[in-house]
Amino acid sequence: MKFLQSLENVSTPANGLAATVGAFLTPIFQYFYGTGRLDILIVFFFMIVLDWITGVTAAKKDQSYSSEYGLARIPRTLFLLALPAVANLLDRVMGTPGFLFYGVTFGLIYHTWTSLTANAHRAGWPMPKSVEKLVSAEIKAKAERAKRKES
């Protein structure tokens, strides 16, 4: 009897809507990104979120923050999220099981890591010197871009 009472809490309109949306979107997601790849995509998405956070923090610190620039980065982010899907579709066409998908995704993760690390440096957050040296070119490029926006 207690089990049936607990089902009343589970079968709510909100849960029904979530299940319906999930049942509709999951096959689409798996078609574009492949199955069993959620972990690497979560890492990639998390890195993008961290890049946005560090970028906004750094821009506010050096007074180069502008909402127009931030809004202009949304299409770029959507493009970055679409590249692994394109790579997965090419893998399917060429019969390469994940070769392009993982290559593109790891390359984008590295690129995003470089960007967020340079942003963290610009924000004044502590960083090991070895990492700072590794991304010095990106740090320099971001600093120059911030100076151009100020003038």
Question: What can be said about this structure in brief?
Answer:
This protein is mainly α and 151 residues long.
How large is the share of residues in beta strands? under 5%
Separate helix tally: 7
Helicity, as a percent range: over 70%
Q: Tell me the total number of β-strands.
A: 0
Distance between the termini: 71 Å
Shape: globular
Q: Unreliable segments (pLDDT under 50, ≥5 consecutive)?
A: none
Q: Could you tell me the mean pLDDT?
A: 87
* Strand and helix order: HHHHHHH
The Rg value, from CA coordinates, equals 21 Å
Description of the molecule:
With 151 residues, the protein is mainly alpha-helical. It has 7 helices and no strands. The chain is globular, with a radius of gyration of 21 Å.
